[in-house]
Each structure stands twice: as C-alpha cells, then as structure tokens.
Write a structure and sequence with these properties.
The protein is an alpha/beta fold. The chain folds into three domains: 235 residues, 3-Layer(aba) Sandwich (Rossmann fold), CATH 3.40.50.12780; 188 residues, Rossmann fold; 132 residues, ANL, C-terminal domain (GMP Synthetase, Chain A, domain 3), CATH 3.30.300. 40% of the residues lie in helices and 20% in strands. The mean pLDDT is 94. The radius of gyration is 25 Å and the shape is globular.
Length: 592
C-alpha cells in the first residue's frame, strides 16, 4: 500500500476540496446542534493560521492545546500545523502542576485553552511558566484581558491574503515534527512522544483504506482530542468526507447521541462496560416475561455469532428467530443509543470478550484495536473483512508485528515515533538493536494472524510461589459486575492474590437489602465484614474458572474511586499500579 506524499495539512486541504458540504460538522450552540459547512471550516483554519503568524508564531514553535474536545480544537490544531509549528496537546483533566511540567518540558511558547475552569488552572501557574508568552482562548470573549480569543486571531487573519497561507503551507514537509504527546506515565515521569506528519498521516491513510467510513456517516467525537487515537480518527473522518458531531461534554454523551443519531463512534472499553451493565440490570430486574424474552433473544444471538465466527451459513430458522429478537428486544436498545449506529471502534485498553460478544449479538459490532501513542497510534484493528471477537484484529497494512521470546509485542512501521523529546537515552532504550519498537505489552498472534493482548509486561504479577498472573483480564471481568466500580489486583511477591475494590456506591442500599442491613455512609459500608464477604462471592461469580493461584482470597473496600487528581490513574483511565500499591501499602499489608 503506497502512502501519498501528504502532510496532515495537505490531507486537510485535499479533504475540503473533495468534500464540500453544508453539514461538515455538527456543533452544539445555543442549546441546539448547528451545522458548520466545509467552506466555513476551511476559512476558519486559514484565518487562524494567518492570525497566529501575525502575532509571532513561527515554524518549529511549540504550542499547547489545553482544551476539551470541540470544533475549535480541530481548527486550532490545523492552524498551528499550517505554520509548521508543533502541537503539544494536554489532557484537560490534568492538574495544574502537570500542565506546568508539560508546558515547560516541551518549551512551548503559546497556550490555547477552552474554558474558564482551564484558565483558572493556567492562572495558578502562569508566573512559573518561563516560555509561554501568549494565551489564546477558545471562548469569545476570553475570560481575561491577558488572553487573546481564537476569533480575535481569525479577525487579524481576515485582513491578509490567502496567498500568504498558500506560501506558508508550501514549505511543509512530511518529515516535519507535527506533535509532541506526553505519555500517561503509568511507570514514571511522562515522556514527550515526538510524531512527524509522516507518522500520523501513515495511520490516517491506512485506516481510511481499511475502515468502512464514508460521506454517508455521522461520526460522533467525544474522547479527548489530546489523545492520539481520537485525533487520528478525526483526521481520518476529514479525509473520508464524513460529518463530525461533537459531544457537549462527557456527562451529556448519551443525550447527544440521541440528538445527532451517529453511525460511527470511537470509544474506550469503560463506556461499553457501563452500557452493558445498565442494559443487563434493566432487563433482569423487569417482569419474568420481559426477562425470559431478553434471555431467549441473547441465546439466539449467541448461536448466530458462533456460526458467523466459524464462517458457517446461518439456517433460515435462526435468521427468522434473530429477526424476531432484533425487532422485540435489540431495536429498543439501539434506539437508546440514537438508533443508527453501524459500528463502534474500541481502543485505549482491553475490551472484555464477553462485552464485545454482547454488542455484536445485538447488531452493534465493536471493532477492537490496539496501539500506542508511540505508533500514532494504531498497530492492529478488527475490520469487517477480518474480524475475530476477543482479539485486537490483524496488524494494519504496512505494520510489522512480531512476538519476542518473553511474549513482548515488537512493532515496526511508518507510524512509529521519531523518539522521545529531549530524551535520547530513553529513545534508545525503546528500540532493540534491530530497530523494533518495544511496546511493553505481552501478547500472541494466533494461526489466523489475529493479535491478542495479555497484559502490560510490567503489570504481570509474580506470586511468592513463582506463578505469573495477568491482572487485566481478571479485573475486566470483575468490573462487569453491577456492584463493582473499580478493582485492582494485588499479589506481587505475596502468598496469594487479593484486591483493592471500589464499590458502586449507588448500589449500597440494594446490597443492604440483600444483607438485611442498613449503613451509615461509605465508611460504615466498606468496613463491614458481611459486605466484604458479599464482594468475595460476587468476584467468584464473575470469575469462577480461575486457576487456584489466580483466586482472589481477600478484598479491601475503598471509600473513593481512583482519580487523575490524586495521581492514581492516567488520563486514559489506566491504573498506576506501583503508585496505588505504595499509597495503599498499609491497607494491603493488613490483607496478608
């Protein structure tokens, strides 16, 4: 597969020329979704780029975007890239000290922000920033006279000739650095991953060739654009001419999906887990008739799935039964998600096989993929042509994937990073002598070429008895319980496995009824021995088939969930295991 000689800006210019549309974007303004045309989008990017040039931003300058996912994020991204400047995205959920670290470590000169809350965060560290001199607000008017608005930049740019923009972008090269993305840092200080235009566009182009997305689709965007997965797929949506609809916020995702009726969406497994739990709880708590109908529908769908995975023809009777199940049960579920979804893409973490099967059975395929920030990000993904539930698909065209002797996944490809910013030693350590990037993930490739991920290499638990346990798959299955909010397995160099478990506190009253008890708040609930026994039974129910050395013998209940602010999880919701184990050492020691 030959990748065109395009930068991300070239991809944008090609896309706006090929796909002129009145409904290029759907943006919530004044309490309703409004359309933004291709021409308006093109003009917004061009004028913003010219405005940035006028206020002194130059080729090679680093520019922070600290903003929630929105239309203006995409405009800002492309405007910065048009100058040959380098985008440094920061997760909007990160606390002020981490924002300061990334802005300073990246040598950024400009900072874009999206809300009053973000400005308050920036204000608290503003005097400590040595390099950032210009602040640009996506809000209009900006919340401070110390910030220029994006609209203000565009007004400056409107007074200039678009020929200046053409001259500007003509000097761009595919090997130019496009972005520095700071890794989540589950094992240490965040590192800035340097990706070139060639790295990211290689992923954009290949994904556009293998994924079934087109002008007819409305693609729903709600994941942080500071994450390379969402940003890459948005560049892909642009290339394919799809309409892009932005969520107002994470809290309003469900309502927004009903409003815009999307057909495609990229998400992380946690959303699918929550939808699954909600559907199962509602279905199984209804009347006996409704419960029986739901379980019958699932059994029919399960038979259909197994035949399809075995590439066998479906008998007429099964097709008839599935049509009935779809009409009576699955259609209602799909309507609650907008009613038009053709498929989802899942990435960022492992999707439990049971949940992938559940969505597929309902006629909502979840195409799971795998990648890293360092690979721009996609390494492998399921497609409609090559699909296998429980795997992350086959390596994408142009990507080489091998499994090392210790099970680590090694990759090579045009999408693999240039290196870590200002960290030559860490860059050298990330590759072996043959030039393979060391992913740090453990997995295997089956005889059909599908890749499966077992766990992070550094997350593998080695018990005192020398047994290796991959915690992630077990944790994923436990989190499918409607009574569990979060869970982390413990057991490294210990006699047996235990778990730190965060209950779903909305179920506290329900659990009280089951145990015939009442509780005076979370502390009382979490310290009750009968509640601990309840959760041990629940864990056994969710993972009944474990080997003896994998069985969780004890559990400690925590009164609060893990959070980014407390440093316990990354912005992509991955647990920082070593940090959590240190923080809760006294709690853990009591379990042994």
């Amino acid at each position: 597969m030959v990748i065109p000689n395009l930068t991300l800006v070239g991809n944008f210019l090609e896309a706006v020329e090929k796909h002129p549309r009145e409904r290029r974007f759907l943006v919530k303004r004044n309490r309703k979704y409004q359309a933004v045309s291709t021409e308006t989008f093109r003009r917004d990017v061009v004028t913003a780029a010219l405005g940035l040039q006028q206020v002194g931003v130059r080729r090679g300058d680093k520019v922070v975007i600290l903003a929630d996912t929105c239309y203006e994020w995409v405009v800002s991204d492309l405007a910065i890239l048009s100058l040959g400047a380098i985008v440094v995205p920061i997760y909007p959920t990160l606390p002020a000290d981490q924002v300061l670290y990334i802005a300073e470590d990246s040598d950024s000169k400009v900072l874009f922000f999206s809300s009053k809350a973000q400005w308050e965060k920036v204000k608290s560290i503003k005097e400590q920033m040595k390099n950032v001199k210009l602040f640009v607000s996506l809000l209009d008017p900006p919340p401070s006279e110390n910030a220029l608005s994006l609209k203000g930049l565009q007004e400056i740019g409107k007074g200039l000739s678009e020929d200046d923009y053409v001259d500007m972008v003509s000097t761009l090269d595919r090997q130019d650095e496009a972005t520095i993305i700071y890794t989540s840092g589950t094992t240490g200080i965040p590192k800035g991953v340097v990706l070139t235009h060639a790295n990211v566009f290689a992923n954009v182009f290949v994904l556009c060739e293998i994924m079934d997305v087109s002008e007819r689709d409305v693609c729903f965007s709600f994941l942080p654009l500071s994450h390379i997965l969402e940003r890459t797929v948005v560049h892909g949506y642009l290339r394919k001419g799809s309409t892009i609809a932005f969520a107002e916020s994470i809290e309003k995702v469900n309502q927004n999906m009903v409003d815009v009726k999307p057909t495609v969406m990229v998400s992380v497994p946690r959303l699918f887990e929550r939808v699954y739990s909600r559907i199962m709880e509602k279905a199984l708590s209804g009347s006996q008739t409704k419960k029986s109908l739901f379980l019958w529908s699932l059994s029919v769908a399960e038979k259909k799935l197994h035949l399809e995975m075995a590439r066998k023809k479906l008998p007429y009777s099964l097709r008839f039964k599935y049509g009935l199940a779809d009409r009576l049960v699955f259609k209602k579920v799909k309507e609650n998600l907008g009613g038009r979804f053709r498929f989802f893409i899942s990435g960022g973490a492992a999707l439990p096989k049971k949940i992938a099967e559940f969505f597929y059975e309902m006629g909502l395929p979840v195409l799971e993929g795998y990648g890293l920030t360092e690979s721009s990000p996609v390494v492998a993904v399921n497609t409609f042509q090559d699909f296998k539930v429980g795997t992350v698909g086959k390596p994408i065209p142009g990507e080489e994937v091998v499994i090392a002797e210790d099970g680590e996944i090694l990759v090579k490809g045009p999408n693999v990073m240039k290196g870590y910013y200002k960290k030559p030693e860490e860059t050298a350590e990330a590759f072996n002598k043959e030039g393979w990037f060391l992913t740090g993930d453990i997995g295997f490739i089956d005889n059909e070429g599908f890749l499966s991920i077992t766990d992070r290499k550094k997350a593998i638990i080695v018990t005192l008895g020398g047994k290796n346990v991959a915690p992630q798959p077990i944790e994923g299955r436990i989190k499918q319980s409607p009574y569990v909010g979060n869970v982390v397995l413990i057991g490294n160099e210990r006699k047996y496995l235990s778990a730190l478990l965060v209950p779903d506190f909305e179920k506290m009253e329900e659990i009280g009824k089951i145990l015939n008890k009442s509780f005076h708040g979370r502390a009382d609930f979490c310290s009750d021995s009968s509640v601990e026994r309840f959760y041990l039974r629940e864990i056994k129910k969710m993972v009944p088939d474990l080997a003896d050395f994998e069985v969780i013998k004890k559990v400690a209940l925590l009164e609060e969930d893990f959070s980014i602010e407390k440093g316990e999880i990354t912005p992509t919701l991955k647990v920082k295991r070593s940090f959590v184990e240190k923080k809760y050492k006294k709690v853990i020691d009591r379990l042994y």
